[in-house]
Each structure stands twice: as structure tokens, then as C-alpha cells.
Amino acid sequence: MTPDLMEEGTVTLNRAKGVSTSAGESGGREASYGRLVEPGQLDVAHGTILYLDDISVSFDGFKALNKLSLNIAVGEMRCIIGPNGAGKTTMMDVITGKTRPDVGKAFFGSTIDLLSMRENEIAQAGIGRKFQKPTVFEQLSVFENLELALKADRRALSSIFFKLDSAQLDRIAEMLKLIHLKDHAQRTAGLLSHGQKQWLEIGMLLMQDPKLLLLDEPVAGMTDEETERTAELFLSLEGAHSLVVVEHDMKFINELTTRGATADKKKVTVLHEGSVLAEGTLAQVQANDKVVEVYLGR
Fold it and tell me: Nearest CA to 44 among 11, 88, 76?
């Protein structure tokens, strides 16, 4: 049977079953037409976890995003920089369903259309977002915050009889160590420093096991030591998760993009007036005259 007939037969079978086929490319020929993808299942066979195409958003005549296109690879750490009003927060609002664009496409993997989903559905699909201001349950302990963030059945009856098993206890212990709060497990979250609250919120997001993390100015207000520890935390997540980091702290950006095994390949994207002004390594964007003019200064 020829490849064309195989592909046609697979497509017909998929339609009958109500599932889609993910087609990969190899040597110029679609090679993955035999692989079935269930509706709503994340498919990253093509190597891209986030795909934005020609996204435009207007607020009362002001274009917050202007034909923005962006691709994030699986396991990539992408840093996004740009002046205030460049569209960075609006971009994350679109990805998480908080804002609907006027035009454009937004896909999580190759099969999940983000623009057809609600905010909670997008979160459940595997996209986690950390806002600039940390949001934790301040009256609860650090441990209890992480416990609440566990993926579990939260219906009333299930919650009444819920009890942590050994695997869940181990996961919380691992997370406490990862976010540098092992010695603060029983401390009330409201008593933590600003930086520690940021780490706790990141830990709560990670308890949900997101495939893509959106981090909005995560080191704003942190001490130098906390900023350094946060860089180490993010670098440890690289590969296991895809990260989009929006930040103004160029020293922090430098830490993230010049360390690690893939440092020479890490990209920085510069946004300006709602679209991509430049993209490349940190050294390349710092040497870009347009970037220097609108953001970095001379």
C-alpha cells in the first residue's frame, strides 16, 4: 500500500472514531499519519508547545498586540523583554484565556485550540501562570498550600475523606526542597518574605504538573540572594517544563540565558508596540540598534 493510501485510510478511520491524526514530517514527507491523538490531548510531536500566529488585540482603539507571532519549543526557556506597554502581559492573557484576541490563532501543541477554551480548561490542559504579585493562602502553612495545590478530586465528599498517601507526601517533600522552603514547611505563609511567597506560588503551580509555565516578573522585589536562587530554580526546571519568563531585570535574564547546556541556543524575544521587534541570543538582541533605542538605552 502506498503512503498516500495509508494516510487517506488513517484519516477516514480517525473521522469515524472522532479523533484527529497528528502528522509529523520526516524528510519532507508526512510520517506520523498512523498515530492517533485523542481530542484534548497535548500533541508536541512537531517539537512546538506554544504557537501564536498573527494575534491582534485592541482596547478602545489602542493595539495592545499587533499581529504577534511566537513559537515556543518543548522544554525551552524563553525570556521575553520589552518596555512597559509592549504587550507582554496581554500576550499571557491571551494564552491563558483571560483576553480574547480580535484576530489570530493560538495553539497549545498542534491540536489544542486555546481560543476555543475557558481559563479553567486551559489550566487543566497544562498551562500554569504566575502573576507579578504572589497569590498564596496566607493563613495556611507552606505545607498546606502545597497540599491544596495537588491534583485531586475536590468534590465535597471526596474532600472530607481525603488523606495524603505516601507518594503525595514524597512529592510535597521534594517540592519543599526544590523551592528552598524545606525548613519552613509548617510556617504560616503570610509570615514568609516576599521572595519566599514567590517560591511558594511557583511550587503550587508545579504541583499541578504544568507542561508550560508563564512567569510574569518573578523576581520583582526580591533580594539579590533570592534572585540568584530563583535563577537556579528555573534552570533546574528547564527541559522538564517549557518556561516563558517575562522580566525587566537584565541581570536575571543574563543568568537564565547564559547558563546551562543549551546556553548558546537560548532565545530572547523583544516585544515593542505589540509585536516582535527582535529575537535571538541575549548578545544578539543587546547588539540590535532598534532594541537599544526603544528599550535598553545607550
Answer: 76
**DSSP structure class, residue 264:** G
Whether residue 24 lies inside any domain: the answer is no
In a domain, 12, yes or no: no
Provide the number of structural domains found in the chain.
1
- CATH code for the domain of 204: 3.40.50.300
Continuous H helices in 130-183: 142-149, 156-160, 166-178
pLDDT at 35: 53
For the entire predicted model, the pTM comes to: 0.82
Residue 212, pLDDT > 70, answer yes
Tell whether the model's pLDDT for residue 15 goes beyond 80. Answer: no
Strands (E), 27-126: 29-30, 36-37, 48-59, 62-73, 77-81, 103-108, 112-113
Cα 109 from Cα 122, distance rounded (Å): 12
Asked if residue 19 has pLDDT above 70, the reply is no
Asked, for residue 25, whether it belongs to a domain, the answer is: no
Query: Is residue 4 situated within a structural domain?
Result: no
Phi then psi dihedrals of residue 254, to 5 deg: -60, -40
Instruction: Say if residues 218 and 245 touch (Cβ distance below 8 Å).
Output: yes
CA pair distance 30, 81, nearest whole angstrom: 36
Read off the DSSP letter of residue 128: E
Q: Which of 137-141, 146-150, 263-267, 285-289 has the lowest mean pLDDT?
A: 263-267
Distance CA 101, CA 65 (A): 9
Average pLDDT value over all residues in the chain: 85
Q: Are 203 and 236 in contact (CB under 8 A)?
A: no
Give the span between the Cα atoms of 86 and 246, in whole angstroms.
Answer: 11
Q: Which domain holds residue 169?
A: 35-296
